[in-house]
Amino acid sequence: MIRTTVNSSNVAEVGYEAATMTLEVAFCNGTVYQYFDVPEAVYKELMRAESIGKFLNAHIKNSYRYAKA
């Protein structure tokens, strides 16, 4: 999965694989999480968000299954 560098104090990179609806988030501390069954529209909203971290906390962290990669 290709990840894109983002401008965030807590998140370093974000990637998305449309075929599997998997969102991958690499944090600045080196941890990587994969969130499953995330619609592409939510990924696009995340990437357009004024604050990646706030959007992640409000709309993704407690809404989708995840695993530490």
Explain how this protein is built:
The chain has 69 residues and is α+β, with helices and mostly antiparallel strands. The chain starts with a strand and ends with a strand. Strand 1 (3-5) and strand 2 (11-17) form a beta hairpin. It contains 2 helices and 5 strands. It has one domain. The mean pLDDT is 97. Strands 1-2-3-4-5 form a 5-stranded antiparallel β-sheet, covered by helices on one side.
Keywords:
2 helices, 33% strand, alpha+beta, 69 residues
Mean pLDDT: 97
Sheet having the most strands: 5 strands, antiparallel
How many angstroms does the end-to-end distance come to?
12 Å
SSE topology string: EEEEHHE
What portion of residues belong to β-strands? Answer: 25-35%
Q: Provide the domain count.
A: 1
Rounded Rg: 11 Å
The outline comes out as: globular
Condensed summary:
By secondary structure, this protein is an alpha+beta fold.
What's the layout of helices and strands?
Layout: E1 3-5, E2 11-17, E3 22-27, E4 32-35, H1 40-48, H2 52-60, E5 66-68
Antiparallel strand pairs: 1-2, 2-3, 3-4, 4-5
Helix pairs in contact: 1-2
